[in-house]
């Protein structure tokens, strides 16, 4: 399979190693400095684009790839207010698009555990639910895409909560947050990604966490998604790949 790496930073480079190990061919490594190289690729030179860039760049990148008819696996976070527009463009073009806030198989198991825990806690509103996500200091968006997916899983199962709200580095979230799941975003060192969901009462705490030791899990998942997407048309996510 031929892969175009759109975004060649920490994730792009980790994905490259996994893709080469799985006998794929990298036809381009695009960062800010060489975007014009994409114009020189023919439409059929690319089986799948793997896009891990930045919240500011991703939507233009996706529009460009959809316009070329290229299948795209996107991992960039922090842009989902424009998701509907992008997915409509994919359907109109008849191309293929895959998005996940987190490609790690372990995190996707954790998403399911999170929903199951929320269903258990549904009848115990006295337990105060909150989340913490911890990432490296280069991360541009907060809260993390993974934290937002976890919050959505909780909101769908906890009727007394209606939204999520952000606090940063331990500072309280703004306003009255009784109906909110408060997410604390911590940025420290080179942490690849840690997510904690907790239910706290006056007498005890129930807590689940996922800790990534490195970026390999995200990268393997993204390459598997690319292999899966290459022969498909439409809009997909991890539940399509892993089975509901
Ligand atoms: N879904 C998932 O499983 C995961 C998602 N992520 C997300 O992926 C994204 C990238 O993460 P990471 O690799 O750590 O970030 P990095 O900052 O290490 O890399 C980003 C790359 O994107 C490039 N880039 C920026 N703007 C453009 C542009 N306009 N066109 C092309 N390339 C561009 C940068 O180029 P330059 O170096 O020249 O600035 C750099 O090569 C983030 O949004 C992060 O949250 C991260 C891990 C897992
Ligand atoms: O920026 C990162 O590094 C990560 N971003 C993703 C997110 O925002 O959830 C996934 C992972 O946590 C690493």
Automatic annotation (TrEMBL):
<keyword id="KW-0963">Cytoplasm</keyword>
<keyword id="KW-0520">NAD</keyword>
<comment type="function">
    <text>Catalyzes the conversion of 4-hydroxy-tetrahydrodipicolinate (HTPA) to tetrahydrodipicolinate.</text>
</comment>
<feature type="active site" description="Proton donor">
    <location>
        <position position="139"/>
    </location>
</feature>
<dbReference type="InterPro" id="IPR022663">
    <property type="entry name" value="DapB_C"/>
</dbReference>
<dbReference type="GO" id="GO:0005829">
    <property type="term" value="C:cytosol"/>
</dbReference>
<protein>
    <recommendedName>
        <fullName>4-hydroxy-tetrahydrodipicolinate reductase</fullName>
        <ecNumber>1.17.1.8</ecNumber>
    </recommendedName>
</protein>
<keyword id="KW-0521">NADP</keyword>
<dbReference type="Pfam" id="PF01113">
    <property type="entry name" value="DapB_N"/>
</dbReference>
<comment type="similarity">
    <text>Belongs to the DapB family.</text>
</comment>
<feature type="binding site">
    <location>
        <begin position="75"/>
        <end position="77"/>
    </location>
    <ligand>
        <name>NAD(+)</name>
    </ligand>
</feature>
<dbReference type="InterPro" id="IPR036291">
    <property type="entry name" value="NAD(P)-bd_dom_sf"/>
</dbReference>
<dbReference type="GO" id="GO:0016726">
    <property type="term" value="F:oxidoreductase activity, acting on CH or CH2 groups, NAD or NADP as acceptor"/>
</dbReference>
<feature type="domain" description="Dihydrodipicolinate reductase C-terminal">
    <location>
        <begin position="106"/>
        <end position="242"/>
    </location>
</feature>
<dbReference type="InterPro" id="IPR023940">
    <property type="entry name" value="DHDPR_bac"/>
</dbReference>
<feature type="binding site">
    <location>
        <begin position="145"/>
        <end position="146"/>
    </location>
    <ligand>
        <name>(S)-2,3,4,5-tetrahydrodipicolinate</name>
    </ligand>
</feature>
<feature type="binding site">
    <location>
        <begin position="100"/>
        <end position="103"/>
    </location>
    <ligand>
        <name>NAD(+)</name>
    </ligand>
</feature>
<feature type="binding site">
    <location>
        <position position="35"/>
    </location>
    <ligand>
        <name>NADP(+)</name>
    </ligand>
</feature>
<comment type="pathway">
    <text>Amino-acid biosynthesis; L-lysine biosynthesis via DAP pathway; (S)-tetrahydrodipicolinate from L-aspartate: step 4/4.</text>
</comment>
<dbReference type="GO" id="GO:0008839">
    <property type="term" value="F:4-hydroxy-tetrahydrodipicolinate reductase"/>
</dbReference>
<dbReference type="GO" id="GO:0019877">
    <property type="term" value="P:diaminopimelate biosynthetic process"/>
</dbReference>
<dbReference type="GO" id="GO:0009089">
    <property type="term" value="P:lysine biosynthetic process via diaminopimelate"/>
</dbReference>
<keyword id="KW-0560">Oxidoreductase</keyword>
<dbReference type="GO" id="GO:0050661">
    <property type="term" value="F:NADP binding"/>
</dbReference>
<feature type="binding site">
    <location>
        <position position="136"/>
    </location>
    <ligand>
        <name>(S)-2,3,4,5-tetrahydrodipicolinate</name>
    </ligand>
</feature>
<feature type="active site" description="Proton donor/acceptor">
    <location>
        <position position="135"/>
    </location>
</feature>
<keyword id="KW-0220">Diaminopimelate biosynthesis</keyword>
<keyword id="KW-0457">Lysine biosynthesis</keyword>
<dbReference type="GO" id="GO:0051287">
    <property type="term" value="F:NAD binding"/>
</dbReference>
<keyword id="KW-0028">Amino-acid biosynthesis</keyword>
<dbReference type="InterPro" id="IPR000846">
    <property type="entry name" value="DapB_N"/>
</dbReference>
<feature type="domain" description="Dihydrodipicolinate reductase N-terminal">
    <location>
        <begin position="1"/>
        <end position="103"/>
    </location>
</feature>
<comment type="subunit">
    <text>Homotetramer.</text>
</comment>
<dbReference type="Pfam" id="PF05173">
    <property type="entry name" value="DapB_C"/>
</dbReference>
